[in-house]
Amino acid sequence: MAKKDIFIGFLIGILTSLLGSFLFIAFYIKSDIFSGIQILRENGYLGKVITIGTILDLIAFGILLKINRELMARGVILAVIVLALSTLFI
Question: Which residues cross the membrane (predicted)?
Answer without folding.
Answer: 6-29, 45-65, 71-89
